[in-house]
Amino acid sequence: MTQDAEVIEIDNDVEENVTLKIGRHVLSCFMVWCHEPIEAGKRYPADLGFFFFDEVGDDWEMSEVGDDVAEEIVSIDDAWGYSVTGTLRGEVLHVGDLRISDEILSGLEYLDGRKIKLRVDRLQVSFDASI
């Protein structure tokens, strides 16, 4: 799901490491694709997704949580990993005003409309042309 993202910073050592602001969220993401070079301080359409180091082996963490648990996205160890809690609607995880679409969510249709918590190894971002 495409969202408006402001590029806050592009890492000098690892150019795929970008810091974004989407809504009220500031996120460190791994850039997997961009249509054109991006620049800090500019806004771009961006699609967020998840990456799990052992997705094939199904060794990733997901649990259903109660409605009283806050929707949030929290960095793990100042790296690309995040703990993500949100409401699943189709293949889109709603985390407050943040929307994350990923094919791994398609296998969780039995949890549609419920709140889930995921531990992801990194957030990935793909950029389209400049807004």
* Count, helices: 0
* Uncertain residue ranges: none
The coarse silhouette is globular
End-to-end separation = 15 Å
> Residue-averaged pLDDT, rounded?
89
* SSE sequence, one letter per element: EEEEEEEEEEE
The rounded Rg comes to: 14 Å
Helical amount among residues, as a percent range? under 10%
Determine the structural class based on helices, strands and strand pairing: mainly beta
Number of domains: 1
Largest sheet features: 6 strands, antiparallel
Share of residues in strands = over 45%
Number of strands: 11
Describe the structure.
It is a single chain. The chain has strands at 2-10, 17-22, 25-34, 43-51, 61-64, 72-75, 82-89, 92-95, 98-101, 115-120, 122-127. The radius of gyration is 14 Å and the shape is globular. Strands 5, 6, 7, 8, 9 and 10 form a six-stranded antiparallel beta sheet that branches. Strands 1-2-3-11-4 form a five-stranded mixed β-barrel. It has one domain (2-127). It has no helices and eleven strands. The model has no long low-confidence stretch (mean pLDDT 89). With 131 residues, it is mainly β.
Short structural description:
The protein is mainly beta. It has strands spanning 2-10, 17-22, 25-34, 43-51, 61-64, 72-75, 82-89, 92-95, 98-101, 115-120, 122-127.
Show the helix and strand layout.
Layout: E1 2-10, E2 17-22, E3 25-34, E4 43-51, E5 61-64, E6 72-75, E7 82-89, E8 92-95, E9 98-101, E10 115-120, E11 122-127
Parallel strand pairs: 3-11
Antiparallel strand pairs: 1-2, 1-4, 2-3, 4-11, 5-10, 6-7, 7-8, 7-10, 8-9
